[in-house]
Design a protein that fits this description.
The structure is a homodimer.
Chain A (H helix, E strand, L loop, with lengths): L6 H23 L2 E2 H8 L3 H13 L3 E4 L13 E4 L4 E8 L3 E8 L4 E8 L7 H19 L4 E9 L2 E3 L4 E5 L4 E4 L1 H9 L5 E5 H12 L8 E6 L3 E7 L2 E2 L31 H4 L1 H7 L7 H13 L3 H25 L3 E5 H21 L2 H6 L1 E4 L6 H16 L2 H4 L12
Chain lengths: ~400, ~400
C-alpha cells in the first residue's frame, strides 16, 4: 500500500491504517508495552497513546501498568488484545475428524473440541449440521460476553478463494460444493465465512503461531491420504490466481508410478501419502489411521518391515522436498501430520535426498523441522483467516455494535 | 508499507512515496495525462501537479499539452518519463551471446548490441572485459546527455541476491564468482550493480513489457542447455530466502532419468533441454545452437524424426508444466527461447499434458503463450532491475548531481 496524499481523506486513511498496524502487532505479538510498540511501528508515543485509547474504548485491547520491577524510568503501560470480547469461530473438516474452536483476539484458544468421524462420503449439509451441533455449546457459553466477528473453515479439498466453493474433495466425493454458503445458512451468525484449504491454513498457523514464526519463506507439508501443503513467500501466503496454489502433493515425481486420486499418474502423493506407507509396510493401503498407528507402533518396537517402509517413504519425501527447495528457496520446511510423525525415523533419508537432489545454494539454506501445532494447525489457521477483516480495518468495529452472540437456532 | 503517523517526518515520507508512485506509473505506463494519473493513483489533481513539477525540474519527466482533439473540457497535460536524461546499462551473459543495452527511463531501448560468443569455460575477468568493450561506444554516445543511474546484469547461473555472487554457472564452469564486484571494478561507473538470474529477469521483463503485462500470477520458462524460469506471484518476483527461487528446471520428473548438470538425476532439464531434443532427433546432444537450428529447419521441412523429437519433448514440457500449475496456480505461462520456438509444434502435447496432469481447478485457469520479447527478455529485465533504486526513491535523484557519464577507462 502506498501512502496517498488525497488531502481531505488523508488523516482518516492514516488513522485507520495505524489502528490496523497496532492491532496486528498486539494480535500477533502482544502483550506489548508502549515502548515496544514505538520501536515496532515507528509511530510516536503520543500517536500510540491515542490509538490504544481508541482500541481500548472499542473493547479491542486493554491497557495496564506494567510491573517493570527494577527497570529505570517511568514504567511503560502494557497493552494486550482482549480475547474475551472479540472472537472467531474456527471450523475444520479433516479426513478423520471434525473440529470447532472459539479463538479470541490475540490468538487465545478459548475452547476447542475435536471429534472423530468415519471416513467416507457424506454430503455437505450433514457435515455442517454436525459442525453446528459441536459449535453450539461453545457459542452459548460465550454469549453475553463476546461478539463473533467471523467464521473460518479449514477444508481438506481444493477451495476457490473468491467464494469458498469446494472445487473437488476426493475424500468426500465432492465436486463444486458451495461450502461457505452452506455454513452461512446453517450457522446463521451473520458474519463473514471464509473457507480455505487445510494445507494453506496449516502453513498460515505455523507461520504466525508455530514452528515458523518470524521466517519469511516457508513450506509446510502435511499428509494423510492426500498430501497437501502451504507456502509462505516473503511473509505472505501463496494463493495463486484462484486460491489453488500450494498443491505440492501433485507434483509428478514418477512417470511410471501409480494412479493418483487427482486423475494423473505418479504424483508425489502416491509415493509419500499414507497409502504408500501402508503398502510398503505390507498393510492394506486403505487401512486408515488405525493401520498407520500400527506401523508407527511396530517401528517403535523395532520391526524391520515397518522401519523399511518408513525409510523408503522418507526417501521419496526427501526427493520431493529437493524439487520444492529448488523451486521456492525456502529457509524452513515444516513437516505436519503424517510427516511430522515420520520425521524422527526419516530425517537421515530426508537430509540425504536434499543434499543430493537440491542445488547447493538453496539446499544449504534450508532447515527441516516438525510442526509445532500438531493436528490443530489448520483449525488455528482458519481462526487467523477469520480475524483478517477485523485486523485489516479495526475502525469498522469501533462503532457501537451488539455484543451478543447470535447462536444458531436460538 | 503501512502509513505511519510519525509526526515530524510524515509529510516528507508521504512526499517521497508519492513521487515514487507517480514515477513508477510513468515508467511502466507513460505517457499519462494528469487525469489518468488521478485515476491510477488516487492522488488529487493538485498533488499530482506539484509532484510532476518536482520530477520535471529534476529532469525525470516532461510535461506537455496533450492534443486531445474532440474531447470536451480543458485538455489534461501529458507527462512522460525522460528516456534521454536517466539511463541504465543492461548487460547479459547468455549461453551463446553477450549483450549490452542502454535503456532510458520509461523503458525505451536507446541502443542494444548483441554478439555471439563461443560456448565453453571463460573466466569472469575476460567476459566482463568483453562486455565493457561492447558497452564503451554506447556510453560515449550518451555522454554529455544522460546520467547512468545503475547497472543490471543478467546471468545464466545461480545468483545470490544479496551481493551478486554467482554460486554456480555450469556452462562457464564457475563456482562462487563475485560477478557484481568484477563488473563494478571493470566498468567504473560508480553506480549500483545488480546481478540476477536470466530466468528471473526474463519473467520480470515479460511481466512489465511483454506477454504478461497486467497479469499477477505468471510462470516464465525458458531453456537452452539449461532450463530456467522465473515466477511472478501476486504481481511480484518470487525470490526466495537467498534469491535462488524459480529453478523450475530442477524439479525431478524422472527418477530413472539421466544425470543432470546440477548433480541430481532426472531433473526436468534433462528431458526438455536442448540436449534432450537433439538426442531424440538423432543428433549429437552437445551440437549447440547450430544443431538446434537444424532440427527446427528439418521440422519445418516435414522431417518425421525432427517432428517426433519435438513431440516427445513437448510431452515432457507439458508434464512439468502440469506440476508447476498445481504448485503455483498461475493464470499465464510464458514460453521463452527454446520453448517459444517449440510452441507451434508442441502446443497440442502441452495442452494434453496439462489437461491430464494438472488438477482441474488450476488447469482451467491457465493459458500458455510464447514470449513476446524474444531473446532480449533477460537483458530488458536487467534494465528494469537497475532502475529499481531510482523508482523506489526518486527524491534522492532530485538533488543536483553530475549529469555526465563516466566512461570506463576514460
Amino acid at each position: 500500500m502506498t501512502s496517498r496524499e488525497a488531502s481531505g481523506q488523508r488523516s482518516e486513511t492514516v488513522r485507520r491504517a495505524n489502528l490496523s498496524t497496532i492491532l496486528q502487532e498486539l494480535h500477533l505479538h502482544g502483550p506489548l508495552s508502549r515502548s515496544e510498540l514505538v520501536s515496532r511501528t515507528g509511530l510516536t508515543r503520543s500517536a500510540i497513546r491515542g490509538l490504544i485509547g481508541e482500541l481500548a474504548s472499542g473493547g479491542l485491547v486493554t491497557e495496564e501498568r506494567s510491573a517493570s520491577i527494577g527497570a529505570p524510568g517511568r514504567p511503560s503501560p502494557l497493552s494486550r488484545p482482549r480475547a474475551d470480547r472479540h472472537v472467531v469461530l474456527a471450523l475444520e473438516i479433516a479426513i478423520d475428524s471434525l473440529a470447532v474452536a472459539l479463538v479470541g483476539l490475540g490468538g487465545e484458544v478459548l475452547e476447542l473440541q475435536r471429534v472423530d468421524r468415519a471416513r467416507g462420503h457424506l454430503d455437505a449439509d450433514r457435515l455442517v449440521d454436525d459442525l453446528a451441533r459441536l459449535a453450539r455449546p461453545l457459542l452459548e457459553r460465550q454469549a453475553q460476553r463476546a461478539a463473533v466477528v467471523g467464521i473460518g473453515l479449514s477444508m481438506v479439498g481444493v477451495v476457490r478463494a473468491s467464494d469458498g466453493m469446494i472445487r473437488v474433495a476426493p475424500n468426500l466425493g465432492w465436486r463444486d460444493v458451495p461450502l461457505a454458503d452452506v455454513v452461512a445458512r446453517k450457522l446463521r451468525l451473520d458474519v463473514p465465512v471464509t473457507v480455505a484449504n487445510d494445507g494453506d491454513l496449516g502453513a498460515l498457523a505455523e507461520h504466525r503461531r508455530g514452528a515458523a514464526i518470524g521466517v519469511d519463506d516457508v513450506i509446510y507439508v502435511a499428509g494423510e491420504v492426500g498430501v497437501g501443503g502451504g507456502v509462505i513467500v516473503a511473509g505472505r501466503r501463496l494463493e495463486g490466481a484462484g486460491g489453488y496454489a500450494g498443491e505440492i502433493g501433485h507434483i509428478r515425481v514418477n512417470p511410471s508410478g501409480s494412479e493418483c486420486r487427482c486423475g494423473a499418474r505418479g504424483c508425489w502423493e502416491t509415493e509419500v501419502g499414507e497409502r504408500a506407507l501402508l503398502r510398503r509396510a505390507g498393510q492394506r493401503p486403505t487401512g486408515g489411521r488405525a493401520a498407520v498407528d500400527g506401523v508407527f507402533r511396530a517401528a517403535a518396537g523395532g520391526s524391520p518391515v515397518a522401519l523399511d517402509a518408513l525409510t523408503a517413504t522418507g526417501e521419496w519425501l526427501g526427493t520431493g522436498l529437493a524439487s520444492i527447495v529448488n523451486v521456492f528457496n525456502p529457509s524452513l520446511i515444516v513437516l505436519g501430520s503424517l510427516f511430522g510423525r515420520m520425521h524422527p525415523y526419516v530425517s537421515a533419508q530426508v537430509e540425504q535426498a536434499l543434499s543430493s537432489g537440491a542445488m547447493d545454494a538453496p539446499g544449504e539454506m534450508v532447515r527441516v523441522v516438525p510442526a509445532a501445532l500438531g493436528e490443530d494447525a489448520p483449525l488455528l489457521g482458519a481462526a487467523e483467516l477469520a480475524f483478517e477483516p477485523l485486523l485489516i480495518d479495526p475502525a469498522g468495529w469501533l462503532a457501537p455494535r451488539p455484543a451478543l452472540v447470535r447462536v444458531a437456532g436460538a
